[in-house]
Amino acid sequence: MNTITAIIADDEPLLRHHLDRSLGEVWPDLEIIASCSDGAQALQQIETLQPDVVFLDIRMPELDGMAVAKALRQLEVVPLIVFVTAYDEYAISAFEQNAADYLLKPLNETRLESCCAKIKQQLASRKPQSSLPDMTKLLQQISQLGPAVPHYLSWLKASRGEDIHLISVDDVLYFRAEEKYVSIYTDDHREYLIRTPLKELLTQLDPDQFWKIHRSTVVRVAAIDKVSKDFTGRMFVTMQQQTLPVSRAQQALFKSM
């Protein structure tokens, strides 16, 4: 059986890394042959490497995902396209008839598994010469959509001892980055571990609900009891009798409070 190949195109390095890693878990036989940070680079790599599948971000510099998809119609061998987008599920109907599939940001493992299964089925049944559907209608629909509505994490999958737990983000007090993992401290005074880097995790949390107060600490704003300063000017937040330092660079978060 021939190896299925894919290219990832997204201007967010963390998203590219996360998608690459997640694809390796849910579809180990898929070979990622290139990772691109803008549309022009993506188009060049697709023309050169001729992948079977392209995971294509809608909004990228140079050329956006829609422009890349439109240009691909000129190729002799056209890959299947999976659009990666922050548009919400109600707007997503615009993509359904014009792409192999779509993925919403932030990525969801269950949805990714479903997407991979759909792609495998389409690859197995497609004709040797396949072309992309007309992108004109899709471009018109995209232009009529409002700003993308971001989707943030509601639940976290974390470990405690040998057990895996599902934790609501509303139960989190704060996150603290450790050497190889991130600790989650909840309002019932328990600690859990996840292996997602804090920087990557922060992109998946609602910025109105979670603030990074230190290079290693992200707190749930609603859980803060008080903010105080000592005689040297150092700032601290108190959460359920726990005191956490605020870096000087992040003190501006509390200026208007």
Description:
This protein is α/β, with parallel strands linked by helices. The protein has two domains: 5-144, 3-Layer(aba) Sandwich (Rossmann fold), CATH 3.40.50.2300; 155-254, Beta Barrel (OB fold (Dihydrolipoamide Acetyltransferase, E2P)). It has helices at 13-26, 39-49, 65-72, 93-96, 109-125, 136-144, 198-202; strands at residues 5-9, 31-36, 53-57, 80-85, 101-104, 155-160, 163-168, 172-177, 182-186, 191-194, 210-214, 217-220, 226-229, 235-239, 242-246. The protein has a five-stranded parallel sheet with strand order 2-1-3-4-5, sandwiched between helices. Helix 2 (39-49) packs parallel to helix 3. It is elongated and about 70 Å long.
Label this structure with key terms:
257 residues, alpha/beta, Rossmann fold, OB fold (Dihydrolipoamide Acetyltransferase, E2P), 5-stranded parallel beta sheet, 5-stranded antiparallel beta sheet, 7 helices, 15 strands, 26% helix, elongated
Strand content: 25-35%
Strand order of the largest sheet: 2-1-3-4-5
CATH topology category name of the largest domain: Rossmann fold
Tell me how many strands there are.
15
Helix-strand makeup class: alpha/beta
Mean pLDDT: 84
Shape: elongated
Question: Which CATH architecture of the largest domain would you pick?
Answer: 3-Layer(aba) Sandwich
Distance between the termini: 62 Å
Helix content: 25-40%
Q: What ranges have pLDDT less than 50 throughout 5 or more consecutive residues?
A: none
* Total count of domains: 2
CATH level-1 class of the largest domain: Alpha Beta
The radius of gyration over CA amounts to: 22 Å
CATH homology-level superfamily of the largest domain = Response regulator
Major sheet attributes: 5 strands, parallel
Give, in order, the helices and strands: EHEHEHEHEHHEEEEEHEEEEE
Number of helices: 7
